[in-house]
Write a structure and sequence with these properties.
By secondary structure, this protein is of the alpha/beta class. The longest helix is centred in the first third of the chain and has 23 residues, at about 95-115.
């Protein structure tokens, strides 16, 4: 499905709408914003991105922009956003980027452009309802303790009830929240310092599905969540997150204020976040909790039927193997879902509608909402639709089991709900996989374009690989990549694409070394040959290494190896809090930091503290990842290659994110070492993966990589 173009020249405006003729253009606003950054200079890629956004807002086309690290893409989209009538919405995947926008980029931008606009632009943060203190829940929080918390088995202590002393601690936290409610202007959990644990916060917050609405709530006029929405409606720029954006799409787009321009930053994460929002699960604990919450509103036999369905689910989950369900629900799980569907329908009929004169409409709505969700999920699982994937999962730490269902694909959902009546700009450092945008475009619900030229990053990589010589020293004599081509590529399908490159000189700043001589990785963990290669590289540099591993076992083996055979400080994810480990890695120049997938995107250490990034193997999804396996199987069933269509693009995004940890600033130098020979030897996908990476100087010779690291150590 080709997504609709946005209507040009129209759009929702506010009572104090800005007039286009009264304000400068995006280029002038960007220039002012850059000038306000200490040491800020004009960046061609940043300027081209801002111009492209203005052009697409004018034409109504959607835009995919790959903006490499160092481009300054935040200002590139924030500046032209101020030329658009009505609020502009910016969505991010991570709290780190959201904090950067709200605490640094937007205040600096507002200061810089105020003289040009004649007023100070406003911005607001919009989060899910459960992020805000609910005064109605807070009023009844003491009464809720025995029902919802005291006898619940906490996630970290499976199989047992909560220690009574913990309930006392919880009561103290609730009292502190009562005191805070009298002081806070926003009720935003992120502003509570020190914070409270998740168990406590659940007692005083309200998920959207359980809210009765401001008009029926006794605290509706004072609602913090409603106040946040009101502020968002009046702001020039609204910052939200992919999860709330997904919920907004699935709920009919009534949460986020109407707007003409949506900027999706970290867009490579969007499809997964939408998939998570459309995912549902059943657990015995959830059914039991729902039964106890609804019991005062039900006949005893109805409540007992709910409890019995939870017991049946527990039996079914204990018998079912962990993993994807490929041949229909097993009998015990089907029976449990059938019992649950019948019990929840009966309970909902018994409770009836929430009325204005109900003695406790909030509690009644809470009970109904959870029961309705259970009923919907049970029916969805029983339907066994081709567009859904079901699986049994087990938490290895807590032992918690769940029956989960999620959509096979969200491309259709995005095509239908993401693009209508607004221009969408999707941007990330990793959108042009294999040097092209078509793979990501399909995942985002856009039809792929006709054949066209490769992206500038792919051209630069090809040039660097083609011209490089094995005996070049440390990449110093590698060729400079060509400047990115000007202009937008039009797909002819209502969207355009643009790769603005990066201001970094990748062929001169870094080496991509692939250990092509190593055996193809087989069993999980760190093979002996890969361990010896890792040891040689790390000792050549003297530490300063970020190790990104495919499994905890491999990371632990690598740490044990270096601790046994070197005196270097080795930091291992899981041994201390991650922020503390990253700070130590940044401060201790000879240290190494080893970890798994959460390090592939979350570490930003510019300078000489990180001059070697080691990746033990290509980050393909594991065969037991239910959604990836199901999507690959669906492609195979249609005569395609599920591995090429699903697994390779996933690996390309993950690999590009991991490799991107090396060069974070203009002065950075170093080596990325991939200890998986398939990146060089695999004919079907090796070159595709390499074209998805920044255009580093490329080599497969270990002596070249070690020599470069030795020179870096001495410099």
């Amino acid at each position: 499905m080709t997504p609709p173009r946005t209507a040009t020249g129209t759009g929702t405006t506010r009572g104090k709408a800005r007039r286009r003729g009264d304000r400068p253009g995006g280029a002038e606003l960007l220039s002012a914003a850059v000038g306000a950054v200490p040491g800020g200079t004009a960046r061609p890629g940043q300027q081209r991105m801002a111009t492209a956004i203005e052009e697409c807002v004018r034409t109504g086309d959607h835009l995919l922009v790959q903006a490499g690290t160092g481009t300054g893409k935040s200002l590139a989209y924030l500046a032209p956003a101020l030329t658009v009538d009505g609020p502009v919405v910016v969505s991010t995947a991570t709290l780190a980027l959201q904090s950067q926008l709200v605490e640094h980029d937007l205040p600096r931008l507002a200061d810089a452009v105020e003289p040009l606009l004649g007023r100070r632009p406003t911005f607001a943060v919009l989060k899910g309802r459960h992020h805000y203190l609910c005064l109605a829940r807070l009023e009844n929080s003491t009464a809720d303790e025995p029902e919802d918390t005291l006898f619940d088995a906490p996630a970290e202590s499976p199989g047992g009830t909560r220690w009574l002393g913990a309930a006392g601690r919880l009561g103290k936290q609730v009292q502190r929240l009562r005191d805070w409610a009298l002081e806070t202007d926003t009720g935003d959990r992120d502003e509570l310092d020190p914070g409270v644990d998740d168990q406590t916060w659940r007692l005083v917050s309200m998920p959207a599905r359980e809210c009765v609405g401001a008009s029926r709530c006794p605290y509706g006029a004072e609602c913090f969540a409603e106040a946040s929405r009101a502020r968002a409606r009046e702001a020039d720029i609204v910052v939200t997150n992919h999860s709330l954006l997904a919920v907004d799409m699935l709920a009919g787009r009534h949460i986020v204020p109407p707007h003409r321009l949506l900027v999706v930053d970290e867009a490579h994460e969007l499809a997964d976040r939408v998939s998570s929002a459309a995912q549902a699960e059943l657990t015995p604990e959830l059914i039991d909790r729902s039964a106890r919450r609804a019991r005062p509103l039900l006949r005893p036999e109805t409540a007992e039927a709910l409890t019995a369905s939870g017991d049946a689910l527990a039996v079914g989950l204990a018998e079912a193997p962990v993993g994807r369900i490929t041949s229909g629900l097993p009998g015990p799980l089907r029976e449990a879902c059938t019992l649950l569907d019948a019990a929840t329908r009966t309970a909902l009929d018994s409770i009836g509608d929430v009325k204005a004169d109900d003695p406790d409409p909030v509690r009644k709505q809470q009970a109904k909402a959870v029961l309705d969700e259970l009923s919907t999920t049970a029916q969805r699982l029983l339907e066994e639709a081709e567009h859904d994937v079901a699986w049994v999962e087990r938490n290895d730490v807590t032992g918690r089991r769940a029956l989960v269902v999620a959509p096979l694909s969200v491309a259709g959902t995005l095509a239908t709900h993401l693009y209508d009546e607004r221009t969408v700009v999707a941007t990330s450092a990793t959108l042009a996989l294999g040097g092209r945008f078509d793979t990501v475009a399909r995942a985002l619900g856009l039809d792929s374009p006709p054949p066209g030229p490769p992206s500038p990053a792919a051209s630069a990589l090809a040039a660097a690989t083609r011209r490089a010589r094995p005996d070049d020293a440390a990449g110093a004599t590698a060729p400079t990549p060509p400047d990115p081509a000007d202009g937008l590529t039009d797909s002819g399908l209502g969207w355009r694409s643009l790769d603005v490159g990066s201001p970094f000189d990748y062929p001169r700043q870094g080496i991509l070394y692939v250990a092509a001589h190593l055996p193809r990785p087989a069993a999980s963990g760190l093979p002996e040959a890969a361990g010896e290669e890792l040891l040689a590289l790390v000792t050549a540099l003297g530490g300063r290494t970020l190790g990104l591993f495919s499994s905890r076992r491999a990371a632990q083996q690598a740490a044990e190896l270096l601790r046994a055979r070197t005196d270097l400080p080795v930091l291992l994810q899981g041994e201390e809090a991650l922020p503390l480990l990253v700070r130590r890695f940044r401060e201790e120049r000879s240290s190494c930091l080893f970890g798994v997938m959460s390090l592939w995107q979350g570490v930003d250490v510019p300078g000489d503290s990180c001059q070697l990034v080691v990746i033990d193997r290509l980050p393909f999804p594991r065969p037991d990842e239910p959604l990836a396996a199901a999507r690959a199987a669906a492609v195979d069933a249609q005569g395609g290659s599920g591995f090429a269509a699903v697994s390779v693009p996933i690996a390309a995004v993950r690999l590009a994110q991991g490799v991107g940890r090396l060069i974070r600033a203009n002065g950075d130098r170093g080596v990325v070492a991939v200890l998986d020979s398939r990146l060089e030897t695999a004919r079907s996908y090796g070159s595709f993966l390499r074209r998805s990476l920044p255009p580093f100087w490329y080599t497969t010779r270990p002596e070249v990589a070690r020599g470069a690291l030795t020179r870096l150590a001495a410099s």
